[in-house]
Structures are given as structure tokens and as C-alpha cells.
Write a structure and sequence with these properties.
116 residues, alpha+beta, three-stranded antiparallel β-sheet, Arc Repressor Mutant, subunit A
């Protein structure tokens, strides 16, 4: 594995290590969201959410674009492919399927979101 690939894999796993960032990914499974909508249910400042979004974007897990005055976030599901391939190389793990990972995020991590 090249140094660049290892650095990218490190960034992906570091981004996934935080429960707030996993909760954000769960929210983005549904659809693209404005940054303010991502921040609304989270018990932290908009600045703190923006830092989490920057880490997710830096890892390639999300992309951000400005539409008018609003900054939007979009899930980049193919970014998890490198992590999935790396885990499968060990053979002791069952193949990681993105559909199963999506269900995991929806069900298991939904509890990380604050109640409405």
C-alpha cells in the first residue's frame, strides 16, 4: 500500500472513530443537508459541527458545496471502499458490504442522535 493510500485510510478510520461524526454520516444517508440542518439536532455549537464536517470532508467521506448562501453536505459512500478492502484483506472478517454498513449506521448509530 502506498504512503498516500495509508494516509487516506488513517484519515477515514480517524473520522469514523468519533460518535458525532458517525451520527452526521447517519443523517447524510437520507439526503444532502445544509450545514445548519446537520447542526440543529447536535448538542454543540455550529463552529464545533463545522470542525467535525471538515474532518469528514478531509477523509473524503463527505463533500461540501456552496449553493447560493447555503453550504451543503453530501455523503460520499465510495470513500468507505478503501477501508472495506483493507478489512477484507485480513480474511478473518466477513466481507464488509456498504449496504450492511448503511443499515448499521441507520439502526445502531441513530441512538447517538439527541431525542427531538
Amino acid at each position: 500500500m502506498s504512503d498516500a493510500a495509508e494516509t487516506r485510510l488513517d484519515a477515514i478510520f480517524a473520522a469514523l472513530a468519533d460518535p458525532t461524526r458517525r451520527a452526521i454520516l447517519t443523517m447524510l444517508l437520507e439526503d444532502d443537508m445544509a450545514v445548519t440542518d446537520v447542526a440543529a439536532p447536535l448538542p454543540m455549537s455550529l463552529a464545533a459541527v463545522s470542525k467535525h464536517l471538515a474532518i469528514l470532508a478531509g477523509a473524503g467521506l463527505i463533500s461540501q458545496e456552496k449553493r447560493g448562501r447555503v453550504k451543503w453536505c453530501k455523503l460520499e459512500p465510495d470513500a468507505l471502499r478503501a477501508a472495506s478492502v483493507w478489512m477484507q484483506a485480513f480474511g478473518q472478517f466477513e466481507p464488509v458490504h456498504l449496504d450492511a454498513f448503511e443499515r448499521f449506521l441507520e439502526i445502531d448509530l441513530a441512538r447517538d442522535l439527541p431525542a427531538d
